[in-house]
Specification:
283 residues, alpha+beta, two-stranded antiparallel sheet, 11 helices, 8 strands, 56% helix, 17% strand, globular
């Protein structure tokens, strides 16, 4: 009989979606920026939290009516968020100078930011990428890319209301953060989940998905810079420059991983990678 909580048996026991989802949610909740720390910055923190509660309740009710496959994919997306957040630093998926930041629930739910990557630069400066994570190829990727295009057309980039950086010692609103969509197909997420469950650092450190993610980001930085110049209006050149600044950083990280024993062809065969590529080619 099908058991939605059971993915596979291993020598170390059974691991499943619900078990790892709870672990992932615990990590993300613990590390997320807490809006209550901003009560000296904003007067509407309580109102924002009420809005988040309403939206989360609506989402939970909607998900309860979805097929099991959709609920499973949603949980895998959350697990992937946690793995990327954790391994982004532990295994240096985004390079040795990167820090992953879990945004507040407000910025996740309202602004669509699943994770933030902070790249430390010379002279105590930093650049940022807002990550929207997807594990389903097709319409979900297209919708998220269309959101980015709309932001560019309207002359603005992603806003993170509740933001703080230990590196730069800043707290408050962060604007003009370039957004990208990253993800992996469910088969590849299952591999990561298995390695995560077993605590297999080698599997996580050398998994090809890190190359797929970096290349997904690179494709989008190039495409959105071009799109900004064509459709971004008065701010088009400025927005394009913001995307291209991040491009230099990502290219350097990809170069730094040349000696890793990773199947780079497998990275580009991922269905989400291919979906992102196809959507960018038809912008």
């Amino acid at each position: 009989m099908y058991n939605p909580d059971k993915i596979s048996d291993t020598e170390d026991g059974v691991f499943g979606i619900n078990q790892l989802y709870d672990k992932a949610q615990g990590i993300l909740d613990k590390d997320a920026i807490n809006p209550m720390e901003f009560d000296d910055t904003y007067k509407d923190v309580a109102g924002d939290m009420e809005l988040v509660a309403k939206l989360e309740l609506k989402f939970a009710n909607n998900m309860a009516n979805e097929p099991e496959a959709i609920r499973s994919a949603m949980k895998k997306g959350k697990i992937l968020e946690a793995i990327i957040h954790e391994q982004g630093e532990l295994a240096e998926w985004f390079g040795e100078n990167a820090t992953t930041i879990v945004p507040s629930r407000y910025d996740d739910v309202v602004n669509g930011v699943d994770n933030i990557v902070e790249f430390r630069e010379e002279r105590q400066t930093a650049s940022y990428l807002a990550l929207a994570i997807d594990v389903v190829a097709g319409t979900h990727v297209r919708e998220k890319i269309n959101r980015i295009k709309k932001e560019i057309e309207e002359g603005h980039l992603t806003e993170i209301k509740y933001f703080k950086s230990d590196l730069l010692h800043i707290k408050g609103k962060k604007t003009n953060v370039p957004r990208v969509v990253i993800g992996a197909e469910q088969k590849n997420v299952d591999e990561l989940m298995r390695g995560w469950f077993l605590g297999n650092k080698q599997v996580l450190a050398n998994h090809f998905i890190q190359i797929a993610i970096l290349k997904e980001i690179r494709m989008q930085l190039v495409a959105f810079a071009k799109y900004a110049r064509e459709k971004g209006g008065e701010r088009g050149e400025e927005i394009a420059s913001i995307y291209e600044h991040s491009l230099e950083t990502i290219n350097e990280i990809i170069r730094s991983k040349r000696d890793l024993d990773i199947d780079r062809d497998e990275a580009e065969n991922d269905a989400v990678f291919q979906s992102i590529k196809a959507n960018l080619e038809h912008m």
